[in-house]
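It would be a great kindness if you could assist me with a short task in structural biology. I am sending you one protein, given as its amino acid sequence and as whole-number tokens for its backbone shapes. I would ask you to consider whether the tokens describe a fold that such a sequence might reasonably adopt. The full record is reproduced below for your convenience.
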Amino acid sequence: MSATHLVILAVALLVDFASAGVPLPRYEALLKQQSAPSDPTLGLYDDGDKVIRLSVDNFNATVLDQNRGALVEFYNTYCGHCRRFAPTYKSVAEHLLPWSEVLIVAAIDCAAEENNGVCRNYEVMGYPTLRYLGPGFQPGPQHYGQSLHTQDINEIREILAGMVAAENLTSSHNNSYWPNFHYLTENDSASSLFEGLSSVTQYVAVVHEPENTTLGVEVALFMTQWPAVSVRRVIDPAVAAKFKIDPTNLPISLVDRKGEIMAYAPESTNGESYAKKLWDVLGKKNITPRPVTVHQPSATPASKIKGQNELIDEVHRNKHFVYQADLEQAIRTVLHNEVSKVGEISGEKLLALQRFLTVLQRYNPLGANGHQLVSKLKDYVVQFNDKLTGSQFEEELKRLEAHLSPVYSSTHFVGCVGSSPRLRGFSCSLWTLFHFMTVQAANNEESQDPLEVLQAMHGYIKNFFGCTECSEHFQAMASRRKIWSVPNKEEAVLWLWAAHNEVNQRLAGDATEDPEFPKKQFPAPDSCSECYRTPDSKSENLEIEWNKDAVLGFLKNIHNPQFVSRYGVQREELLHPTADKMRQKRQISSVFTDMDMRMGMLLYAFCIVMMVLAFKLFAFKGYRKKPYGHDLLGKV
């Protein structure tokens, strides 16, 4: 046995309007009343953000049949693209906060199991997905809101302004804060501007809007929290001149009830700059926006932070361990979140699901109840030849779990824990699960198909994995690395290992990387020195020359079911007992050497000899006493 194997065996034993304003009262109420996912530390947004967190409990009440619109992001917490977009979306919510009486910015986490039905019903095919749901919105067939195909803040603002203005021109809303987006005409004058307006309105801001822009709409939306001002748009230069507007130099003017007009020049040509100019002018007139209250973010419980830090310490100590908890979390998330939220499973998707469940059944790391669950679920799915809905799958899954409960021995990540709940987690555990299954397949003589696990993995990632960008990257890499040409099962283990290292290299230093667990090539030199052909190849600045035979042996050892760590497992009685028994046997064999065993046998033989001698000695003494007793009897 190599030194590396001995080390492995031994170890196995032992996530600039902040200053200009804060949430409006009604928006503040939405923030406070929002229903967060079951674990409030999950998701990409928290109470400190201006993004309204949606869930199945508050989705309909917040965005359906309202007198305002909503921008909704459908996202997945573990999706790398979603994580990178989250800071931008937070900025969007902060930037558009003054619009909140007309438009709110919200998000729903499709990685949360309780939200499966919402994400499935809205036919979300990729993440992140942005949808505009207008006033009075009700979903219907092929009507799930208007999609925004951009992630640029300025473009989002312009598109939304156009959508909101179109709503105003085509619909009627019971919303007193909704601006008047109609253009001024030659019939309008300084005196007529105030007709129909509340007595609270002291000024009308007239904004010149260049053709094919939404500048005037944006200004009107930025001013909705200022009840003393109404905003009107003008596009005709002749009409604009009536209000002292010079489109080039003085594009905005302020009209009071006396008919006095004053024109102004903003610093730049965008809605934000125009609004800031008006805020500055109004502030000098001692006019302020509606009063607001500050929404204080809540802190993460200290007990949760402590428990998370303990897990991180454990993983740092045993960085190449494979944990049972991670394998189970991967399976549970795949079944409950990934597959269940798909609207219709047919054609290639159905075949991919059947293949995945077949492979999972064969190399299942769960306990006895888990084996029954996967087996029965696979039998249920393979009976469908045409199509299966995600809701049908979810219903059967929950029925089986209720019948076989309890199924899972753990409810949290261990080896895949992140320094933030928004980092690592499912994506890490999914890699772990597929590595585990390729190793089990390599050690299984019943199946000779070298592609069974890789094909199941490829089909799952292509058709069900929630991170669209990740899926596209993986498919491109699989094609480039010729996944369909892998010749045998051991090469399948190495193919997946090399592919994973390529992904680590690509994402090293990315915004999605956990600073506590930087992405490096695996295994590290201190975990498997034999995996490196020369000491120089261990340098991060040089291309690594791998000893693939040693890598294969290393991977087979750490993914051996007998070596899978049960640290952090809450219900170990649900798992197969053989692992502990085998571990005890290995502990015994490692404690007693061959010399110990030989000495033990000699001691045993010596004890036997001494017992025989003792027996003969006492027997002989007894024999000598008999004649004496006989003589006495004889004399009598």
